[in-house]
Amino acid sequence: MSQQPIQYAVDLIRTARNIVILTGAGVSKESGVPTFREAMHGLWAKYDPQQLATPYAFRANPQLVWDWYEWRRGLVREAQPNAGHIALAHLEHLHSGNVLTITQNVDDLHERAGTRSIIHLHGNIAQNKCFEACQGEPTQIDTIDLDDDGRPPHCPHCGGLVRPDVVWFGESLPVQAINQAIEASQFCDVMLVVGTSGLVNPAAQLPKLAAQNGATVIEINPDTTPITPIAKVKLNGTSGDLLPQMIAVLEA
Ligand code: OAD
């Protein structure tokens, strides 16, 4: 990567008052958490994540879906924030304007890297809730009893099944999170889009909304995505490589 596009991106960021950072699974890849759409390995190679991450799949086979999430939880627990997460946290603290991170990721690696101002659009994989939403949506379950067989636990209120507190395909996003994300996207001057395929709505609409309202979109991704055509600056490469370079230029 030549210095010029990075310098251009940094100039845009430096002069912005309101910055939104939109992240996806690509940001956590260099921490060892596989992205959603890449081929799964080992035990899980024969499954399609888009078929597992649905309420229908959980209803049909709770054990399978629970086991898959337990596996992903293990990966997240062992993972450490990478240089990309750390650079983004640094940007929030370094910049004199407002910097808000909106993430589709269900891990907490942004927070563990030091990001404070963050909206999770798709929930939190470490938390659980009642599948029946017996006390309203969400009915969060703080402590669960896992038996030795690793069977999906039951809700202490209604006895129904407990599920991970994440958004599945076919489900609505948490209302407050998506409303705040839409508002911030409409008002930002710069949106930095990192490591997302731009395929899953409504998150994929946020860069378009930002651009329609006059913001400059900067994209970091090794691939071309549906967001690329609206990006004023496209940085081809990984977040763990490019974001620290951007911060170094910003600090110089
Ligand atoms: P995807 O797995 O769809 O896409 C990951 C993106 O990251 C791709 O565009 C890759 O090219 C890019 N990428 C891979 N490695 C990268 C790296 N090291 N640095 C930067 N970019 C990299 O993930 P998302 O777009 O986040 O939703 O997927 C959106 C949603 O779809 C997820 O939140 C999840 C999934 O269904 C739910 O679970 C509801």
Describe the structure.
The chain has about 250 residues and is an alpha/beta fold. It folds into 2 domains: about 1-30 and about 80-120 and about 175-250, TPP-binding domain (Rossmann fold, 3-Layer(aba) Sandwich), CATH 3.40.50.1220; about 35-80 and about 125-165, SIR2/SIRT2 'Small Domain', CATH 3.30.1600.10. The protein has 10 helices and 9 strands. It has helices at about 5-15, 25-30, 50, 55-60, 60-80, 85-95, 110-115, 175-185, 205-210, 240-250, and strands at about 20-25, 100-105, 120, 125-130, 140, 160-165, 190-195, 215-220, 235. The chain has a 6-stranded parallel sheet with strand order 3-2-1-7-8-9, with helices on both faces. The protein has a 3-stranded antiparallel sheet with strand order 5-4-6. Strand 2, helix 7 (about 110-115) and strand 3 (about 120) form a beta-alpha-beta unit. Helix 1 packs across helix 10, helix 6 (about 85-95) runs parallel beside helix 10 (about 240-250) and helix 8 (about 175-185) packs parallel to helix 9 (about 205-210). The chain is elongated. Bound molecules: 2'-O-acetyl adenosine-5-diphosphoribose (OAD).
